[in-house]
Specification:
By secondary structure, the chain is α+β, with helices and mostly antiparallel strands. It has two domains: about 10-110, no CATH class; about 120-229, no CATH class. It contains eight helices and seven strands; from the N terminus they run H-H-H-H-H-H-E-E-H-E-E-E-E-E-H. A hairpin with a 5-residue loop joins strand 6 (about 195-200) and strand 7.
Length: about 230
Amino acid sequence: MERACQCSSFPPALCYILFATYNVDEKKTTAAALVWRDFLNRDLGCQCWLELLSQKSDSSDDGVVDDFRLLAALMQPRFTHRRCDVMRSLAAGTNIKDRQEIVDWYITEYLVHERTLVENAEVFETHSGRHIGWIDLSEEEGLYANISKMIVERYSVNLVASVIRNGIMLGGTSIDKGIDLSFLHGFHNVDGTALEVIGHKSPVRFRPVDGVVDGKFVLAARGIIMENI
C-alpha cells in the first residue's frame, strides 16, 4: 500500500459499518478474514485495510494481486511468526525486506501443492446419485482455504468432504452459499463407531466422540454421507 494507515480517521462505529459493506466473514480462513482478526478488530480506524479489502485478488493490477498473495502466505503456519510485523509494514507502506521471497514461496510452492492436492482428490457417488469430492488433508501442515471451491469447480461435485486432523469437514464452494445439512446434525453410531455432526449448514464437521480420527471413523463418516446425501 502506498500511503500510511490513517488509524484515527474513522470512529469505531463507522468503521464497523464500512467493514460490513465488504461482506467479509471473519470465520473464514481467507486473507480478508485474516486482516479483520489480526489487525482491523484492534485498530478500527485503519482506512488502508478497508481500501485493500475493497479490491480483488484477481485484479489486473499486479501490486494488488501481490498484496493478496502476501496476505494468503501469512495465513500459513510457516509464516505465523512474521504475520504481525509484515501486516503492520504493509499497512504503513514501509519496506518488507523479504516480501518477494514470501510471495514467491506462495506462488511456486503453496499454489503448486494446492493444485496437486486438487488433482489427486477422489470423487464418489452417493446412493441418491449425487457426487461428492473427497480429500485427505490430515497430514497437511498448511491451511487450504479454497480447496473445496476448487474441487467443486473442477469435478462438478455437490459437496466436498475434507479429512482433517480433528475430524471431517463437509462443505461446498463457500460458507456464504451453505447447503442445509440439518438432517445430519447430532450423534450417530455406525457399527460401534460413535460420531457427532456439528452444524446445520455447510460446512459441517464430523467429530469422533472418542477424539480418535482413524480408519474406522473415516469409513463411518463416509458411510453416513453416502447413505444420506
